[in-house]
Amino acid sequence: MAAGVMGAGTMSLGGFGIYAHWPYCSAICPYCDFNVRRDRGGDHSALLEAIIADLAGHAARIETRGATSLFVGGGTPSLMAAGDVARLIAAARDLFELRDDAEITLECNPEDRARFADLQAAGVTRFSLGLQALRGAGLLFLGRRHSVREGLAAVEAATATGARISIDLIYGRDGQSPEDWRAELAEALALGIEHLSAYQLTIEAGTPFARAVARGRMRVADSDRSADLYAATQETCAAAGFEGYEISNHARGAAAQSRHNLVYWRGGDWVGVGPGAHGRIAMGGVRTATRAHADPLAYTRAVAETGVGWESAEALDNAAIAQEIVLMGLRLREGVDRRRWAALTGGPDAAQLDGFIAHGLVIATEDTIRLTEAGRPVADRIAAALLG
Ligand SMILES: C[S@@+](CC[C@H](N)C(=O)[O-])C[C@H]1O[C@@H](n2cnc3c(N)ncnc32)[C@H](O)[C@@H]1O
Ligand code: SF4
User: Fold this and answer.
1) CATH code of domain 16-264
2) Which residues, judged by CB distance below 6 Å to any ligand atom, belong to the binding site of ligand 2?
3) Claim: this prediction has a pTM higher than 0.90
4) 319-387 domain in CATH 1.10.10.920?
5) Which of 102, 228, 250, 297 is most exposed by smallest CB count within 10 Å?
6) What is the pLDDT of residue 113?
């Protein structure tokens, strides 16, 4: 793969990805703080054109080519017309030499299952299905619009296309016990899927859920309950043959891992287009963090005026790069590339590292630093300490 300038800061290690954000959803879920907008049935063709033009704007500014993955996330990109998805894929192929064997993921809501066959025919190779729960009470609690039966039908519809399937589930829902969660999760893992993202419910500031918690109308799992739910997740997935290759992500074998997300976790480069999208690209040999305008209109205007949708493009210094690769990499079972960390900032704080090793939380070799099972639930705290 060709890359701009390679060094400890600019890396295409583990692939080069493209992320495209589609912000529209039929309804906004009360827990969600992604960059989303209610789809009121308007014409979004200007946004699609802007996203494609933004890709071209990136291609004119960076030399990196040979994309190994395209991830269309949201929002709800399964609301996009299949023809529009095909155009996006074609643009990624033309502009970034998206490889023939690239992983092309689309995030889908179960309500859109009747369109999965067309989306697969448009080039999607992997469906990421937002099931969220396999219990009616759980879906109701989360304010979802689909039923358990519709969720299962969505898995069937995706399976029929022959594409790879990942599902998202949210645990730590109101009153959910580890036993209930184990049973629900085991059912999900038996659906013939190859990948699971299991997220603990996060109460995000400014959401209806945050207001409900503030008013005492909703309970959140305390830290003991959270730890039990996390342990139940790891054990149930392992028993079903799903390896927890990242803290929230489990795959049935290495080939089933999310190639696109591995680019983020391994500190690789990706282009981010669409409202609010983040990217990490090599510009003139410098690792650069891009953030697109969040508002679809402002984004579309920026692309028209400047050629790209950036609200900011910031060159990252070595300390900032090290911080990112450590925070991300420690989430992976394989750990952080120790040599790259050393080249950036000299590597981890030696005294902290020795302490964590002695406490059985970290394993260090010449090449990698990774967490033990005991260390994984406290990855962020360990990362902060090692970064000094
Ligand atoms: C950006 S959403 C898009 C998925 C798709 N629109 C859907 O809702 O099914 C990606 C995933 O983030 C997870 N998620 C969103 N908000 C969350 C929260 N507050 N806590 C935990 N997980 C969350 C959900 O599992 C969701 O499927
Ligand atoms: S969870 Fe999915 S459907 Fe719900 S608001 Fe967020 S992106 Fe939209």
Assistant:
1) 3.20.20.70
2) 25, 28-29, 32, 34, 36, 74-76, 109, 130
3) yes
4) yes
5) 297
6) 98
